[in-house]
Design goal:
3 domains; mainly alpha
Length: about 525
């Protein structure tokens, strides 16, 4: 009896276990990474500190760039467990687990006669590289993908004649707006508009009327927060959340910063190991010749219009594609069901090459890596990765099911890469000690300035009770002269003379170094200062 068939629950359980293991490894190997992760947790910390759960704050000022739902999730855990570093890092894995379950159930809606596809889809999703990375990062995109999946359930329920489906869609829209803004509409509306293609025979007027009502329900949910928040946050904040941020992001998005094709060469990496596996492409070609069923058309209507839209929007980031990954996983599970291919030679070969590269880096034989890394990795992660790739290749040739085979290989790849990278990541990105040193200075009643653009990266990690002054150029020099008792965080271009600097705290930081020094030392260091 094949354990990977039946209702797919075994593969769903395996996907959840992989997610738990990947989360544990991320907690052990990665700190909160500045600038994004530390900024978002700091915004939640300032709301918590102020007792204001309506308006997010960053360094003492209303923060209009992101809605508050993720911050509220941090607050819920802090209310239960106390203020901890680990809870914000568990919120996204929990939403990722919810997304895996929703993808599993969505496959059962799309292909009710193929019950085992749900587990396959969940396993493909949890092992895709970009999904793994952002499931274990303090970012908004996996949470947004959860609401997109809920909205897709609503769309399918509505297409089957259930009016509650439109209510579910409206809730997903509203919660998506509260998570990351109106971008949820870009992810949900194309598949709703294309419903006559993937679900022919429906009543157009009734359908589109229901979609409009769902959008209005979503807007009402979002406005239930936005209206009181706009009144409480002041005119500038109100203008920003209702118009300014949307308009500015649209201007930036079409500012031609990145070309149309920018995502295409990234797809093999973002969707590794599935995108580079010839078996998937062979199965897709076979399925296309056999004809597209309702579920396949649904996945294409979900995935392709949004991907094309993001290609035209030149303000591109890899994580913008995360809400599309469930569609890819569902499509891959479906096409592989008709034409399974067991051999996994190409992904295994690429993984083995990565393992060899890690071993060369550990032995100091890659000059470019030596110049950038704070410390060389250990030899064993690369060696183990190469060995696991060989095992996956042999297992594929002997007929081991390809989906769990490649899923385990993809998850193992990221685990071992993170273990190998930890000696380099910690010295450059772990800023907790610096944040605590700033907190000690503030506790003595002394002012602290940040000699660069400040992203609030120290607020939460140092449990800071007061904002840092953000000062530049002549303004910074004048402040240092007027506050000889004060301290400043100075960012240096390199770490060559770091040992000679008298500092309250000093460390490597990203591409250079950061030092917490008194006003006199800060004045002397300004010629070596670099904006950060």
């Amino acid at each position: 009896m094949n354990p990977y068939r039946n209702d797919g629950r075994g593969l769903l359980l395996l996907s959840l276990l992989l997610l738990a293991a990947l989360t544990a490894v991320a907690l052990l190997t990665r700190p909160l990474i500045p600038i994004d992760e530390t900024r978002y947790v700091s915004a939640a910390w300032e709301m918590w500190l102020r007792g204001d759960f309506l308006v997010p704050f960053k360094n003492g000022e209303p923060y209009s760039h992101k809605p508050p739902f993720m911050f509220w999730m941090f607050h819920a855990g802090w209310a239960l467990f106390g203020v901890t570093d680990w809870w914000p890092r568990l919120v996204l894995p929990l939403f990722s687990a919810g997304a895996l379950l929703l993808a599993y159930l969505l496959a059962r809606r799309l292909w009710p006669q193929r019950a085992g596809l749900g587990g396959q889809a969940a396993l493909i999703l949890v092992s895709a590289l970009l999904w793994i990375v952002f499931s274990t990062s303090v970012m908004f995109d996996v949470m947004l993908a959860f609401w997109v999946l809920l909205g897709m359930h609503g769309i399918l329920a509505a297409a089957d004649g259930k009016r509650r489906g439109f209510v579910m869609l409206g809730i997903a829209i509203g919660m998506g707006v509260l998570t990351k803004g109106p971008v949820i509409l870009l992810n949900l509306l194309p598949v709703a508009v294309l419903a006559p293609w993937w679900n022919p025979g429906m009543r157009w007027r009734r359908w589109f009327g229901g979609v409009v009502l769902a959008v209005l329900l979503g807007a009402a949910i979002a406005l239930a927060w936005a209206i009181p928040a706009g009144m409480a946050g002041g005119e500038a904040y109100r203008n920003a959340i209702f118009w300014g941020q949307t308009a500015n992001r649209m201007v930036e998005s079409f500012a031609h910063r990145r070309p149309f094709w920018w995502y295409l060469p990234l797809l093999p990496l973002l969707l590794f190991p599935w995108f580079v596996w010839p078996g998937f492409w062979q199965a897709l070609a076979h399925h296309r010749r056999a004809g597209l069923d309702r579920g396949t058309r649904f996945c294409l209507a979900w995935m392709l219009p949004v991907f094309i839209a993001f290609c035209f929007i030149s303000g591109k980031q890899p994580h913008y594609l995360v809400p599309l990954f469930p569609a890819f996983a569902l499509l891959a599970a479906r096409v592989l069901a008709d034409r399974p291919a067991f051999r996994v030679g190409v992904p295994a070969l690429l993984t083995m090459g990565l393992g060899v590269a890690l071993m060369l880096a550990a032995s100091g034989k890659i000059a470019a890596f030596n110049a950038e890394a704070a410390a060389l990795p250990a030899l064993w992660p690369g060696a183990l990765l190469a060995l696991l790739a060989l095992v996956a290749w042999v297992a594929g040739r002997r007929g081991f099911p390809p989906v769990p085979n490649l899923a385990l290989l993809g998850a193992a790849t990221l685990v071992l890469v993170q273990l190998a990278a930890k000696p380099s990541i910690d010295p450059l990105y772990d800023i907790k000690a610096l944040a605590l040193a700033i907190g000690e200075v503030q506790a003595q009643g002394l002012p602290v300035a940040n000699a660069a653009r400040y992203h609030a990266q120290y607020q939460f990690l140092g449990r800071l009770q007061a904002p840092l002054l953000e000062l530049h150029g002549a303004e910074l020099k004048r402040w240092l002269a007027e506050h000889p008792e004060g301290y400043a965080v100075i960012y240096l271009r390199d770490r060559q003379k770091l040992d000679a600097i008298p500092a309250r705290h000093k460390q490597a930081y990203r591409g250079g170094a950061a030092v917490l020094v008194d006003a006199r030392t800060a004045t002397r260091l300004l010629p070596a200062h670099i904006e950060n």
